[in-house]
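Heat shock protein 70: structure tokens wanted.
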Amino acid sequence: MKRLIGRVDTDRLVQAGKNFPFLVQTLDMGGRPFIAALVNNVWKSTTPEEVLALYLVELRIMAESKLKRPVKNVVLCIPVSFSRFQLTRIERACTIAGLHVLRLIPEPAAVALLDAQQQQHMIHDNMDRGSKKVALIFNMGAGYCDVAVTATAGGVSHIKALAGSATGGEDFLQNMMCHLLPNFDSLFSSHEINEISSMCLLRVATQYVIRKLSSEESVQIDVDLGNGLRICKQVSREEFEEVNQQKIFEKCESLIIQCLHDAKVEVDDLTDVIVVGGCSYIPKIKDLVKSVCKRELYKGMNPLEAAVCGTALQGAVASGISDPLGDLDPLTIQTAPIRIQTNRNSFVSIIPRNTAIPVHKELIATTGSDNQKEVLIVIYEGDAEKREGNHLLGYFKIAGIPPAPKGVPQIKVSMDINASNVLSVFAGLIMPGSQQPVVPIMEVRMPTVDDCYGCCVEALRREYLSTLNFI
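Answer:
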């Protein structure tokens, strides 16, 4: 569900979801996708956040059974590449499940927190308070790949840079299924019951192959998919790596290089390289990270439990529980730039990528034409060159600008992200010679758009393109 939640139905990942062994319903209009299930021979639709809420309810019941008390609060770790709009969908799922979100943290930040705690214990045992460590954390799960560079000193962890993409174990699975069955798309296009059953059989068999190839050089696959379809062949590890070289492994390598560059850290500066997540068992992944970082992998934590343990530590911190060996609260960052649109496809960044949180930034803009009466301020998250590649966070209009030549009115746009990661945008108009805003300052919390924000983008373009002419 993490692949679908908070995405519009025109998104590439949602469109790829049509290869899932369940029905993803889309109108392809920039609205939200729906998940359909066949119940008593009737298709019933629900949303990705409602499905996620069902998982959270089950987890809450398990936690309450173990703890013998009610559980009302939750801390979740999320992929680095999640947009702020996706975070609101996660929060909605938690609300449906009867949970209050204390904090949402990037998955590698959770791993960094666990690493910081381990460093605290090492410092305490060795009495070495001058140690400083720089670690690269590579986390790859079912749906996402995240990379972080962290600096830890005295048990305090600072995230220097984050990078992430929607690349994960599901991509390995999809690539191998298409490789094993070249006409995969045409065979499973209608999502009839027998097709879904065959797809599930193929997924299970392919997962088995990928898992076995982590410890063996080759594996035999023999699966009867029904309807006259049968796959019987030998698959080698070399074949698996070749199928995924360009689509996955090269992307992973570029993420590591990008994160090191953003953190202004050289490979020789790294003291630890940590690989975690469900895909950490794949030999090529481990070899790739070691090759780029030129260092052996850190083996002091369980790759499958690291993010969970770190999130539990963050839950303790958020609940006011302190570690007797020192403070544990990682200093985190804004993972994607927050920008305003200045015309059809131009943007100006106000909060750059990898800016430490909390933060306050300002920008002075102006009108782009004589006697311009109003300005539409549109806020996006992302660093894509074109509008379609960024996430719309919201918009508001400043009207009542007094007649003046272009470049004379001053429009002050401020952005503030507090310690709880809440983004607020302020804007006001100041004319030369005046110290006070001509129109009242506007304050808007972002994101303001809800479902169907893809439609909002198109409506803004048609209706207000002329008022975007400023800066």
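The two ends are 40 Å apart (CA to CA). The mean pLDDT is 86.

Cheers.
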